[in-house]
């Protein structure tokens, strides 16, 4: 099938410019700030430079554990034994479990996420895969599936080990998948403290107490790598909620990683607007269909379409719809048949969004198909 470009211009009262606002000075070796609502990177520095991820590693540990819950390999109320290996894990932060205990998976997840327990990480890994080594293979397999070429895991805890590496951008990818793939478990990351075996420990993410809109995710530290923090905030605006995700690596202290993360998040919210272009479920374009029971199909996006644009810069955005032509039935609901391209009026790309069929179009009867075949031949 040949493709033609079907375009239309929509004048919008919103900001758009080719030159992005300059971020504030951030006292971190590496960082990245992403607007998850608009799927846009707002600022970055050395975001692809490999570093020791330290306890940020546990983001992937948790993701694989969440996957085991999804696949019914684990249950939250299921108890797991504590092996000698898990109990003998005594470096770094701990949940303080021992071989006489049988903690529930829910408790181990809180120990992993809130208390940053290395022993909890080992117990969960063994519960999912039988051994830490098998679990690490699952972590690396998932990283490869996402195309994280600068990430390699050697353990489940984040303790420094030769060859273990990741980047600010890759850690942001893992965090974003936790938020989008497992919203039912994301609430663990907002918990400020957790008491297990009468021992109360605070979450290392200081922003949970400083900013009520911050609801995750993970703090880390390693000698030589400094202090790191993956943080996400979800703030309410007139056109809906807007989620930003920041990653800072290589800061000087616990307070610095929180302060620099807060600076990035606040700047992202004030320097950019997330503008809703189309609502979820709304037809963006109605196009002709051949050989179908219906003569037209409505094309739209799977979700609401947002773009992040610099605040206070009056201008217009241009949208273009590209779709298969001729569009021939049968068409399945959710089938991708085109792309919505959003640019500035000067042609600078802003976003590309897949366009899908909103309602299925079954194939027509024999007569209808024959008639449209003749029309297509003439066309």
UniProtKB/TrEMBL annotation:
<keyword id="KW-0573">Peptidoglycan synthesis</keyword>
<dbReference type="InterPro" id="IPR018044">
    <property type="entry name" value="Peptidase_S11"/>
</dbReference>
<dbReference type="InterPro" id="IPR012907">
    <property type="entry name" value="Peptidase_S11_C"/>
</dbReference>
<protein>
    <recommendedName>
        <fullName>serine-type D-Ala-D-Ala carboxypeptidase</fullName>
        <ecNumber>3.4.16.4</ecNumber>
    </recommendedName>
</protein>
<keyword id="KW-0378">Hydrolase</keyword>
<keyword id="KW-0645">Protease</keyword>
<keyword id="KW-0961">Cell wall biogenesis/degradation</keyword>
<dbReference type="Pfam" id="PF00768">
    <property type="entry name" value="Peptidase_S11"/>
</dbReference>
<keyword id="KW-0732">Signal</keyword>
<comment type="similarity">
    <text>Belongs to the peptidase S11 family.</text>
</comment>
<dbReference type="Pfam" id="PF07943">
    <property type="entry name" value="PBP5_C"/>
</dbReference>
<comment type="pathway">
    <text>Cell wall biogenesis; peptidoglycan biosynthesis.</text>
</comment>
<dbReference type="InterPro" id="IPR012338">
    <property type="entry name" value="Beta-lactam/transpept-like"/>
</dbReference>
<keyword id="KW-0121">Carboxypeptidase</keyword>
<feature type="signal peptide">
    <location>
        <begin position="1"/>
        <end position="18"/>
    </location>
</feature>
<dbReference type="GO" id="GO:0004180">
    <property type="term" value="F:carboxypeptidase activity"/>
</dbReference>
<keyword id="KW-0133">Cell shape</keyword>
<comment type="function">
    <text>Removes C-terminal D-alanyl residues from sugar-peptide cell wall precursors.</text>
</comment>
<dbReference type="InterPro" id="IPR015956">
    <property type="entry name" value="Peniciliin-bd_prot_C_sf"/>
</dbReference>
<dbReference type="InterPro" id="IPR037167">
    <property type="entry name" value="Peptidase_S11_C_sf"/>
</dbReference>
<dbReference type="InterPro" id="IPR001967">
    <property type="entry name" value="Peptidase_S11_N"/>
</dbReference>
<feature type="domain" description="Peptidase S11 D-Ala-D-Ala carboxypeptidase A C-terminal">
    <location>
        <begin position="272"/>
        <end position="363"/>
    </location>
</feature>
């Amino acid at each position: 099938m040949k493709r033609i470009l079907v375009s239309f211009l929509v004048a919008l009262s919103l900001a758009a410019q080719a030159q992005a606002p300059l971020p504030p000075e951030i006292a971190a070796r590496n960082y990245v700030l992403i607007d998850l609502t608009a799927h846009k990177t707002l600022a970055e520095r050395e975001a692809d430079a490999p570093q020791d991820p330290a306890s940020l590693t546990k983001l992937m540990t948790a993701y694989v554990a969440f996957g085991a819950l999804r696949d019914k390999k684990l249950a939250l109320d299921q108890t797991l034994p504590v092996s000698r290996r898990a109990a003998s894990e005594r470096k770094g932060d701990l949940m303080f479990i021992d071989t006489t205990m049988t903690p529930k998976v829910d408790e181990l997840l809180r120990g992993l996420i809130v208390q940053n327990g290395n022993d909890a990480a080992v117990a969960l890994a063994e519960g999912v895969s039988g051994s830490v080594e098998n679990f690490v293979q699952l972590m690396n397999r998932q990283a490869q599936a996402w195309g994280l070429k600068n990430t390699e895991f050697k353990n489940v805890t984040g303790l420094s080990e030769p060859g273990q590496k990741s980047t600010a951008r890759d850690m942001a990818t893992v965090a974003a998948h936790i938020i989008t793939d497992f919203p039912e478990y994301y609430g663990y990351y907002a918990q400020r403290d957790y008491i297990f075996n009468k021992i109360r420990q605070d979450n290392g993410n200081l922003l949970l107490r400083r900013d009520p809109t911050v609801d995750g995710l993970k703090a880390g530290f390693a000698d030589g790598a400094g202090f790191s923090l993956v943080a996400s905030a979800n703030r309410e605006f007139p056109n809906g909620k807007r989620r930003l995700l920041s990653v800072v690596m290589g800061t000087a202290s616990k307070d610095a990683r929180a302060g620099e993360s807060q600076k990035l998040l606040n700047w992202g919210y004030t320097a950019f607007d997330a503008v809703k272009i189309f609502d979820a479920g709304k037809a963006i374009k109605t196009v002709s269909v051949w050989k179908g029971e219906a003569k037209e199909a409505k094309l739209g996006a799977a979700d609401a379409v947002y773009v992040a644009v610099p605040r206070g810069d009056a201008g217009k955005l241009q949208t273009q719809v590209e779709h298969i032509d001729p569009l021939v039935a049968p068409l399945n609901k959710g089938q991708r048949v085109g792309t919505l391209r959003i640019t500035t009026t000067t042609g600078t790309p802003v976003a590309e969004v897949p366009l899908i069929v909103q309602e299925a179009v079954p194939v027509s009867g024999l007569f209808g198909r024959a008639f449209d075949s003749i029309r297509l031949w003439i066309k």
